[in-house]
User: What shape does this take?
Amino acid sequence: MTHLVTSSAAPRLNPTLSSLGVYASKAISQAAKENPAILNMSIGEPVFGPPEHLLADIARDDLSPEAFLASAKHYGPSGGNPELREAIADWYRRRYGLHIDSQREILITHGGVEAVALAILCCSQPGEAVVVTEPSYMLYQRALLALGRRVHHLHRNFFSDGAQQSLPASPALIVNSPENPSGYVFDDDEWELLLRQARQQGSWIIHDEVYDTMSFGRRHRPARLFDPQGERTVLVNSLSKKFGTPGLRIGWLVGNPDFIAAASKANDYLILSVNQQYERIALRMLSDPQCDRWLQQRSLMLSARVERALQRLTPDKGFTWSHRPLGGMFLFPDVQRLFEALTPAQQRRFPTSGECVADYLLHEMQIATVPGAIYGASCAQHIRLVLGCDEATFDEALARLECAMPMRIRGEQA
Assistant: This one.
């Protein structure tokens, strides 16, 4: 006789993942997409790119039926297209004078997010605390928690204020420069201090440099410039932001041969390989003779928008600027003055002033922004706005933000 075994025990899900909610910028952006009247200044999807002069060639050669079949019918090399890796090595040679072994020190990844995850996997163990500079991209913390690591926040001012204390003991530190959300760019002295302390602690430095071409107030410097052999530095980069192609999902990791060998194993086990057809498009963009000039034009556009914002979003309008953006594609003003002008009911809606202002701007001014608290406790009085939108949206957003101060306060100021 067959006996049926019944049990009331339900299968379990990973409690860490279950506890992580949808991150704020994604939720806010989704609300904006559902209402065309809302100006979406919340998510980093640049409207520029890919370069218009390449579109015909991409359509003819890279998106042809032949190119599709060549890509779709075969697995690509697990390390990525060798020609693309050589183009990336050339990127570092011509821009920074760095000599990277294209086949042993570069791994093509499924966007910069996979590159970050692989770097974390390779240089830390479950349960260890990885240092993340603050302000920081919100997904660093979530990636670390999802991978079973702990997070140790360290304010970026640790490096910029001449601090002499030691880095917390940790296998790795994640640095974003140019920085999302503030636009800060590390200078040479800060990199030297960081490398010196990392050597003393035996730590890796994971430098997320995806906004590398968007530096206008200070020259961008990859961490590897201060560690030519890559003994303790790893670079994370991608095409998503610089070429305005976040859906292409082509990124890369640069490290010494041992590090890339370890990352390649993890890549094989988890991803196997990236889309070969999209690698062709990435190769075309990086190899384009007009590439550097086109990217410089995008950087100049972002710099000009920063200038306009600083001129128009002034303290009397509710915006103050503790630091001028030096790079990246975001604005990160302190909005405490605007918060103080809200009604008591509006001020009580959320725990931080930045959240209350973001809520007010969304519902009263129809502008979607991101509250600063998600980038760290020190950012609670800030909001983040993107600079990569179209010109009409940017102009209208500035006009609305200039009028964001409640009418009764504007009347008093007049």
